[in-house]
């Protein structure tokens, strides 16, 4: 099991309704690929956390990099994990300020840094957990 995290700049033509539709389509596709995760959206950028089999994440990331709905894709993390932070297969859309949901489910140093990295990206400080799904 692996986790891949990236951020990107949202295309100016992409509105919120299109983002919601994109997440619904991704949720179905991700379930078939045994991938779970969340798409964090702050109005200008995406930060996406994907979890699942390494091969499936690699294929999905290659597809994501070519997607014209965003640009400037930068991979922030690609690491082995022992448990999912997002156990439900599919995709969730998270917007706005992160809200604490408790401690991360794993205790490796890199995993503990991931929530702080997400919070720093959105500029909301260093809350202890991931954003609340919308």
Shape: globular
Give the structural class. Answer: alpha+beta
Helix amount: 25-40%
Order of helices and strands: EHEEHEEH
Q: Total strand count, please?
A: 5
Distance between the termini: 26 Å
Q: Name the CATH class.
A: Alpha Beta
CATH topology, anyone? Alpha-Beta Plaits
Could you name the ranges where pLDDT drops below 50 across 5 or more consecutive residues?
97-111, 124-134
List the helices and strands and how they pair.
Layout: E1 2-10, H1 16-32, E2 36-41, E3 45-52, H2 54-66, E4 70-80, E5 92-95, H3 109-122
Parallel strand pairs: 2-5
Antiparallel strand pairs: 1-3, 1-4, 2-3
Q: Can you tell me about this structure?
A:
By secondary structure, the chain is an alpha+beta fold. The chain has one domain: Alpha-Beta Plaits (2-Layer Sandwich). The chain has three helices and five strands. The chain has a five-stranded mixed beta sheet with strand order 4-1-3-2-5. The longest helix is centred in the N-terminal third of the chain and has 17 residues. It starts with a strand and ends in a 12-residue tail after the last helix.
